[in-house]
């Protein structure tokens, strides 16, 4: 093993108010283009966006051994503390396949020198994909064509044009691999220590997991296809599993059962064994990671204590606790609970991380999630006192690419200002107890909750205290560079 260093409100959100690409939908973002057959206005699954905690009333992306690094003492949370703990080396981000279209963000725009991992979203699985069919019929037809010569439960490329065919400066017409994959190969040539992992699944591409993970024959097809994929595309350093979500609460109502608890463990075991076998063939180390829902119900749905020994890192999607899929107001990704963020117990980063550690996940394998976007409401009413969070939201604010979701770079340029002076009638505030910024326009009733460098640095400090593996973000094209700098402590 490598030892290198939603139903309720969540599901309503992920039905995607606005279609965007063919794979992006749970994190709070998205947009796709039409070059290559993927409709730029078709939803790819918005963000398999930063997934979200759990069926929260609702819903919603390495190294180390299986031994937890714990420690002695207790800080009052009931979670053992390590007085010598420090934040691990992981600084990861998701790069979305569809970013090359309307967002005009490309692999060459990634500041690879500030990252240890790039997670490529998303790689689909052939087979039952009702969630994709409902959210994005054109994207579903494209996937059907990609899967025509493959057995169900095989992984495949979704948008062939974006992944393999789009030309960039320096490409030759007969290069067998161009597009995002070709650019990632060039990135790795310049930054060989950066790990690049294909992320399999996501919000609208997770349906096949439910009938695959617990079935020996189907699981074998899947695992074998992952290994074949890694052999064919040698730029990748392992695989990231984004199953949304074991036990249920994902995009397709009715999928998920208690059997998923152990099926997830067996899936990780089989992938780990297959990766180790591949390592013997190639002499390379391969990582197995997974993006997971962070709310209590989703954590309880998986036997993470048994699964963790097979995994290198677990990316906890500690964001999307609140959003405009509901009129309930709270911070998108608060570090701690506060008076502005107490409608639902456990809807904060610290509670999620500590719950995962209590569930048996070694802190040294946990990677904390931050948001390179914000969520906002319009028509906030019934506000009491000075806090807009005492009111009720009246729907999603205008977003960058989908209603209610705003890229961080747009928040700064259009609402906060470069020095948080506030623009267009918005006032900047920072909830020091929650470690969370927000913007409010009292005259229009518009409220935006988001991460900024201050809140990200607070999360880094918390991660260091807990001895976590590092931090990751959804997703890189929403940033102006400031969030990534903060993830690095700059």
Topology readout:
Layout: H1 7-14, E1 25-26, E2 45-46, E3 90-96, E4 117-123, H2 130-135, H3 137-146, H4 160-165, H5 179-190, E5 195-201, H6 207-212, H7 216-232, E6 238-242, H8 260-282, E7 287-293, H9 296-300, H10 304-307, E8 313-317, H11 349-358, E9 366-371, E10 373-377, E11 405-407, H12 408-416, E12 427-431, E13 436-441, E14 446-450, H13 453-466, E15 470-474, H14 482-487
Parallel strand pairs: 1-2, 3-4, 3-15, 4-5, 5-6, 6-7, 7-8, 8-9, 9-15
Antiparallel strand pairs: 10-11, 10-14, 12-13, 13-14
Structural features, described:
The chain is α/β, with parallel strands linked by helices. It has a single domain (7-372, 452-487), classed as TIM Barrel (Alpha-Beta Barrel). 28% of the residues lie in helices and 16% in strands. It contains 14 helices and 15 strands. The chain has helices at 7-14, 130-135, 137-146, 160-165, 179-190, 207-212, 216-232, 260-282, 296-300, 304-307, 349-358, 408-416, 453-466, 482-487, and strands spanning 25-26, 45-46, 90-96, 117-123, 195-201, 238-242, 287-293, 313-317, 366-371, 373-377, 405-407, 427-431, 436-441, 446-450, 470-474. The protein has an 8-stranded parallel barrel with strand order 3-4-5-6-7-8-9-15. Helix 7 packs parallel to helix 8. The radius of gyration is 21 Å and the shape is globular. Residues 1-82 have low confidence and may be disordered.
Task: Provide keyphrases for this structure.
490 residues; alpha/beta; TIM Barrel; 8-stranded parallel barrel; 14 helices; 16% strand; globular; disordered N terminus
């Amino acid at each position: 093993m490598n030892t290198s260093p939603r139903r309720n409100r969540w599901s309503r959100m992920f039905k995607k108010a606005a279609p965007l690409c063919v794979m992006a939908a749970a994190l709070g973002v998205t947009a796709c283009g039409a070059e290559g057959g993927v409709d730029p206005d078709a939803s790819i699954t918005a963000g398999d966006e930063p997934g979200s905690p759990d069926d929260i009333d609702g819903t919603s992306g390495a190294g180390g051994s299986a031994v937890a690094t714990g420690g002695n003492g207790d800080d009052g949370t009931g979670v053992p503390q390590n007085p010598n703990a420090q934040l691990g080396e992981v600084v990861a981000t998701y790069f979305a396949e569809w970013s090359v279209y309307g967002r005009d963000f490309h692999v060459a725009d990634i500041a690879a020198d500030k990252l240890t991992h790039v997670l490529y979203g998303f790689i689909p699985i052939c087979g039952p994909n009702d969630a994709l069919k409902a959210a994005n019929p054109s994207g579903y037809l494209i996937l059907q064509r990609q899967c025509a010569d493959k057995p169900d439960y095989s992984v495949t490329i979704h948008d062939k044009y974006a992944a393999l065919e789009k030309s960039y400066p320096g490409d030759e017409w007969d290069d067998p691999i161009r597009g995002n994959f070709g650019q990632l190969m060039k990135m790795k040539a310049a930054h060989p220590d950066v790990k690049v992992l294909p992320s399999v699944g996501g919000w609208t591409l997770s349906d096949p997991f439910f009938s695959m993970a617990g079935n020996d024959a189907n699981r074998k097809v899947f695992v074998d296809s992952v290994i074949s994929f890694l052999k064919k595309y040698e730029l990748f350093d392992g695989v990231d599993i984004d199953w949304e979500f074991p036990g249920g609460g994902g995009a397709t109502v009715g999928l998920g059962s208690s059997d998923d608890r152990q099926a997830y463990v067996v899936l990780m075991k089989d992938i780990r064994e297959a990766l180790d076998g591949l390592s013997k063939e190639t002499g390379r180390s391969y990582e197995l990671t997974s993006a997971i829902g962070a709310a209590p119900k989703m954590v309880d749905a998986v036997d993470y204590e048994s699964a963790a020994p097979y995994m290198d890192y677990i990316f906890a999607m500690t964001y999307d606790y609140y959003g405009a899929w509901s009129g309930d107001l709270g911070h998108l990704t608060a570090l701690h609970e506060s008076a502005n963020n107490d409608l639902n117990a456990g809807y904060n980063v610290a509670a999620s991380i500590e719950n995962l550690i209590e569930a048996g996940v070694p802190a040294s394998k946990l990677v904390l999630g931050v948001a390179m976007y914000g969520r906002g409401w319009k028509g906030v009413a019934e506000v009491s006192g000075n806090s807009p969070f005492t009111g009720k939201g009246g729907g999603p604010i205008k977003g960058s690419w989908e209603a209610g979701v705003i890229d961080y770079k747009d928040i700064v340029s259009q609402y906060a200002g470069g020095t948080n002076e506030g623009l267009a009638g918005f006032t900047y505030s920072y909830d020091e107890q929650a470690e969370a910024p927000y913007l409010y326009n009292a005259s229009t009733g518009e409220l935006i909750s988001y991460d900024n460098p201050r809140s990200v640095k607070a999360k880094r400090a918390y991660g260091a205290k807990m001895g976590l593996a590092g931090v990751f973000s959804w997703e890189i094209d929403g940033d102006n560079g400031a969030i990534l700098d903060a993830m690095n402590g700059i």
